[in-house]
Design goal:
single chain; 408 residues; mainly beta; 7-stranded mixed beta sheet; 1 helix; 38 strands; rod-shaped; disordered N terminus
Length: 408
């Protein structure tokens, strides 16, 4: 029995003895890497690769394509009945042994669609190629679109990169801050990125780059970051000042954005105290002005909120101890005189005492004159001192008359 099959472009002829065999063969197909997508430009030439492996010369590669799976080629033999045949050609794939399909002068609406190559090995292998036309990226914008783009320090802002919706294939998007690639912080979906405000990024350029064709440079959209951040006040040191003098302290701040800054001072334990301006001024300062003062610096952000920083400063008013008034002392000659000099502590509280009289000095808070004689009559002065940390001394003194009386 002879089984002869003749393949034609429009018909397949067979005798009755081959029917069962033919049906069996065409029912077994192996789909290889189905549905790969290939892109091309209108009026260009594309070669659709058939990677199906075959080494036999008798194996036939059949290409079909749109519309409705029309047969284009058997190997390099063109189907003469199809339109645009002059734009088609077959070329042997030296790697696989199958035939590739070439299309010249690509035409939108005609050549785009699903193609398949099939080789009649056993089992039959089939491979699909989805051909689409490139649609270039021609419009890239950032949302929000403000330039400069304002963000407050330590807050987060989502920025989206939007391209024309018909771009094909889907674009690859990368993000740059100046020259640094920061795409990694976009995590999975690179169409948007979440920025955290950092003053070191102020005035830097944020750029979105979008491309869907490695043979063409990417399209870009740029904006300049305007990172708002508060002033930073320089550390204020403790102020030790002698009572009665003038206190003058200036509050200084490092650069900030926006740069315009207001300053004011308050006293922590006195809600009624406030001084506007850079400098704290207290003329003829008194001990009651000791305490903690706070300088605050503010700038106003574009949304009306305030950036703020503050520093506290201790004011330590130094003052001497205060002696308690002493009265005149009358004493009988020959007796022992003992007078105690007392004082209210100053600041610092550590205090020393001494007594003086012309040609006489006695250290300590108690004046002691045993067996006093009338020659010891006179004016004695008690002096008290504390030592300021600037090397000066605080002093106070009181005089006292001693009158030595005779029994005769």
């Amino acid at each position: 029995m002879e089984c002869r099959i003749m393949l034609h472009f429009n018909t397949i002829r067979y005798n009755k003895y081959c029917l069962i065999w033919l049906v069996f063969i065409v029912s077994i197909k192996e789909v290889y890497n189905q549905n790969r997508t290939v892109y091309g430009y209108e009026r260009d030439t594309v070669i659709l690769i058939c990677p199906l492996s075959t080494s036999a010369e008798s194996v036939i590669t059949t290409w079909t394509g749109p519309p409705e799976n029309v047969v284009y080629f058997y190997n390099d033999i063109k189907n003469p009945s199809i339109d645009r045949g002059e734009r088609l050609f077959g070329i042997r794939n030296t790697a696989s042994g199958a035939y590739n399909l070439g299309i010249t002068n690509l035409t939108i609406g005609v050549d785009d669609g699903m193609f398949s190559c099939e080789v009649n090995t056993n089992p039959i292998q089939q491979y699909f190629v989805n051909f689409k036309f490139y649609v270039d990226i021609h419009n890239v914008t950032l949302i929000p679109s403000a330039n400069p783009l304002t963000i407050q320090e330590d807050t987060q802002l989502e920025v989206r990169c939007v391209v024309n919706s018909n771009a094909a294939p889907a674009p690859t998007i990368t993000w740059y801050l100046e020259s640094a690639n920061i795409t990694s912080i976009a995590v999975t979906n690179t169409t948007f990125i979440t920025l955290t405000g950092n003053r070191t990024n102020n005035n830097k350029t944020l750029q979105c780059r979008a491309t869907n064709n490695n043979n063409k440079p990417p399209k870009t959209a740029n904006t300049t970051l305007n990172v708002e951040y508060p002033p930073t006040i320089k550390t204020l040191s403790q102020q030790d000042i002698v009572e009665g003098r003038a206190l003058f302290v200036t509050c200084q701040a490092t650069p900030r954005n926006p740069n315009s800054t207001t300053f004011y001072w308050i006293k922590v334990d006195n809600p009624g105290f406030r001084q506007n301006g850079l400098s704290l001024q207290v003329p003829n300062i008194q001990r009651t002005s000791s305490g903690t003062y706070r300088c605050t610096a503010e700038n106003i952000y574009i949304n009306g909120e305030k950036g703020q920083d503050s520093q506290t400063m201790v004011v330590n008013v130094l003052y001497p101890p205060t002696l308690i008034t002493m009265s005149r002392r009358n004493i009988i000659e020959g007796r022992d005189l003992s007078v105690y000099c007392t004082a209210t502590p100053g600041n610092p509280t550590s205090t020393t005492f001494y007594w003086t009289n012309p040609g006489f000095r006695q250290n300590g808070s108690t004046l002691q004159l045993p067996n006093i004689q009338r020659t010891s009559s006179g004016t004695y002065r008690c002096t008290t001192e504390n030592n300021y940390n600037n090397g000066e001394k605080g002093t106070d003194s009181q005089s006292m008359i001693v009158n030595v009386q005779s029994l005769r």
